[in-house]
Automatic annotation (TrEMBL):
Domain ABC transporter per the UniProt entry, residue ranges: 10-227
SMART domains: AAA
Keyword Signal: no
Keywords attached to this entry: ATP-binding, Nucleotide-binding, Transport
InterPro entries: AAA+_ATPase (IPR003593), ABC_transporter-like_ATP-bd (IPR003439), ABC_transporter-like_CS (IPR017871), ABC_transpr_LolD-like (IPR015854), MacB-like_ATP-bd (IPR017911), P-loop_NTPase (IPR027417)
GO molecular function: ATP binding; ATP hydrolysis activity; transmembrane transporter activity
A GO cellular component entry from the record: membrane protein complex
One Pfam family matching this protein: ABC_tran
Protein name as annotated: ABC transporter ATP-binding protein
Naturally occurring in which organism (per UniProt): Amycolatopsis carbonis
CDD domains, per the entry: ABC_MJ0796_LolCDE_FtsE
């Protein structure tokens, strides 16, 4: 392996992922090498089945590639024990999902600080205030998810992803459950997170309009990447 130096927040090197074996094997990722620059908003686009989710899951340490390497900063995830992968996901990565994935019985505030509680860490009050103000959630913190609009729920999910100050936020079709107004608002906020806080964001989307908000679009087809 060559020495690896880059400004990348997260990168894949010669990443291959096979599902199944023999003649029935699916090559979901086929020798993918791609870097995602720190402090940039990147989108991964491509048709259904092209490997977008598989790439994101491997980059986030949620799935183990068949071969190749994933670097989060300078840390090579290949061969790391579960304990290290869990710590990387918890401390260095934030997630935003299409279906928000908030806990229904908890207030917005408790949902936002949950990743910190799970890590046994206390919220940085100044950062919590900045974030909830920035995301327009100050008046909504006592509400439960069912008492919030879709756009508000996704903003709570975004606050939850950012509260740990992760190296990378992965957003998986973050506008897929929203109408176009709320979707545009969430994309604009993601953009502002990159600009204001230097946050690195990698978003998977089908939607060309959503990808239009990114600094850079990586296209996938048949498990391969093209710019
Ligand atoms: N757990 C699995 N077992 C077997 N095959 C899988 C599995 N997960 C994904 N695949 C296959 O790998 C390929 C890539 O799937 P992937 O979900 O990464 O694509 P995608 O671009 O994210 O698609 P979509 O936009 O529909 O979510 C597809 O052919 C898919 O059927």
């Amino acid at each position: 392996m060559k020495p690896f130096t880059t400004e990348a927040a997260v990168a894949a090197r010669e990443l291959t992922k096979l599902y199944g074996t023999g003649a029935a094997a699916v090559r979901a990722l086929d020798d993918v090498s791609v870097s995602f620059e720190a402090g940039a908003f990147s989108a991964i686009m491509g048709p259904s089945g092209s490997g977008k989710s598989t790439l994101m899951h491997c980059l986030a340490g949620l799935e183990t590639p068949t071969s190749g390497h994933v670097f989060v900063g300078s840390l090579d995830l290949a061969g790391q024990p579960d304990r290290v992968l869990t710590a990387v996901r918890r401390d260095r990565i934030g997630f935003v999902f299409q279906a928000f994935n908030l806990l229904p019985s908890m207030s917005a505030q408790d949902n936002i600080v949950l990743p910190l509680r799970l890590a046994g860490r206390k919220a940085d009050q100044a950062w919590f205030s900045t974030l909830t103000e920035f995301l327009g959630l100050r008046e909504r913190l006592a509400h439960r998810p069912a008492e919030l609009s879709g756009g508000q729920q996704q903003r709570v999910a975004l606050a939850r992803a950012l509260v740990t100050r992760p190296d990378v936020v992965f957003a998986d079709e973050p506008t897929g459950s929203l109408d176009s107004t709320a979707g545009t608002e969430v994309l604009t906020l993601l953009r502002h997170c990159v600009r204001e806080f230097g946050q690195t964001v990698v978003m998977v989307t089908h939607d060309e309009r959503a990808a239009g908000h990114a600094d850079r679009v990586v296209h996938m087809a048949d498990g391969k990447v093209s710019e």
